[in-house]
Amino acid sequence: QVQLVESGGGLVQAGGSLRLSCAASGRTFSSIAMGWFRQAPGKEREFVAAISRSGDNTVYADSVKGRFTISRDSAKNTVYLQMNSLKPEDTAVYYCAGVRGRYYLTYRGTRDYEDWGQGTQVTVSS
């Protein structure tokens, strides 16, 4: 099992930026494909971005494409989500997730993932 701890959430004005971090422990980081999801009040958890074990492949939800960037640092066992040009509709609790996936694959479904962090709140004011 992998332990995942998110950080970096907070309150930001529309147009601003935040960088979320997710530190992983308990399993070799290179064996885990990673993803970010978010859940707004009254809504289902939705996919935001994912990165393969190799780090070579990434995929994004259409709503964040061009504004968010997912990356991973194997030396720090950490995955990041750089969020730019934030909008009020980006307000949600953001979760990172991990799965023992195939080396070059990315995963978009909540059911694809085995382990989840506790979440970090991101609030974007208008």
Write the layout of secondary structure elements.
Layout: E1 3-7, E2 10-13, E3 18-25, E4 33-39, E5 46-51, E6 58-60, E7 68-73, E8 78-83, E9 92-99, E10 115-116, E11 120-125
Parallel strand pairs: 2-11
Antiparallel strand pairs: 1-3, 3-8, 4-5, 4-9, 5-6, 7-8, 9-10, 9-11
Query: How would you spell out the order of helices and strands?
Result: EEEEEEEEEEE
Task: Report the average pLDDT across residues.
Answer: 96
What count of helical segments does DSSP give?
0
The percentage helix is under 10%
Q: How would you characterize the largest beta sheet? A: 7 strands, mixed
Radius of gyration: 13 Å
What is the total tally of β strands? 11
Describe the overall structure:
The chain has 126 residues and is mainly β. It has no helices and 11 strands. Strands 2, 4, 5, 6, 9, 10 and 11 form a 7-stranded mixed β-sheet that branches. A 4-stranded antiparallel β-sheet has the order 1-3-8-7, with no helix packed on it. The chain is globular and about 40 Å long. The termini are far apart.
